[in-house]
Amino acid sequence: MTEFExxxxxxxxxxxxxxxxxxxxxxxxxxxxxxxxxxxxDMNFIxxxxxxxxxxxxxxxxxxTAESRLAMRNAIAILQQNRAQFPNAQDExxxxxxxxxxxxxxx
Length: 107
Prior knowledge:
The chain is mainly alpha-helical. Helix content is 48%, strand content 0%.
């Protein structure tokens, strides 16, 4: 986590990932057959045990402005309208649009 500067609030277990996919918050392509850390482990407890230095999110804003959210939604709408022009990039576009950080910004 420290090597890749992953903030504590972004640490999730596979089971949590599956819940997000089932609720269609993220793409079903991220669904996994894994259930780690298992049903007897509380991920909130695990996150609490992580060093607080990892919790720092200096490199990302906690909240996006309404203007930046609107700009991102508009940009995605334009890309979606023109997606047929780039048939070899559609998977990558879908991956970007359904990325949890993009979803968090646009909703």
